[in-house]
User: Which sequence fits this backbone?
């Protein structure tokens, strides 16, 4: 949400009720800003499950294959050593490093993908200029309606939010004309 309407609520229950009512009235581009996780908020906003796990899977598999292949190359192909008649390609001995390479590549790729999908780091956002928004990290609950939402009609939506119990209603970014 780069631009849109923000509404401040005092309790998480009031915010959840307002989100449910807004969704029933046809608003689809909603977001919430809370000081701590609220049970049921993702379902109320209509969020789907994150695709991050499927994006990380190929990197985890590549790390697994790479870790195994490096061990095979070093021990069985490039520098084979006959130690007590043991084979150069001893798969059970390769398991710990193969597993660790899978975990390492999945963690690093997951972190980078998360930053890219979240568009982080973002040092400034238009919602930071809304008076009182800093309390979203302390004790207030905010709902954001994106300006691109077709159901957003400025005076009507502002009145609806006030009727739903919003303490404050303010625009983030430039007001929609």
Assistant:
């Amino acid at each position: 949400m780069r631009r849109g309407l923000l509404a401040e609520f005092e309790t998480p229950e009031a915010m959840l009720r307002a989100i449910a009512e807004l969704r029933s009235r046809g608003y689809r581009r909603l977001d919430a800003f809370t000081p701590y996780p609220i049970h049921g908020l993702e379902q109320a906003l209509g969020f789907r499950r994150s695709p991050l796990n499927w994006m990380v899977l190929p990197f985890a598999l590549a790390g697994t294959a790479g870790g195994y292949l490096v061990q095979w190359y070093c021990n069985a192909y490039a520098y084979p050593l006959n130690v007590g008649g043991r084979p150069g390609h001893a798969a059970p001995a390769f398991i710990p490093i193969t597993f660790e390479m899978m975990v390492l590549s999945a963690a690093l790729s997951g972190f980078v993908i998360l930053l890219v999908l979240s568009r982080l780091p973002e040092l400034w956002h238009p919602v930071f200029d809304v008076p009182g928004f800093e309390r979203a990290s302390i004790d207030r609950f905010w709902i954001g309606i994106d300006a691109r939402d077709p159901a957003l009609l400025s005076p009507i939506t502002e009145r609806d939010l006030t009727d739903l119990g919003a303490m404050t209603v303010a625009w983030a970014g430039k007001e929609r004309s």
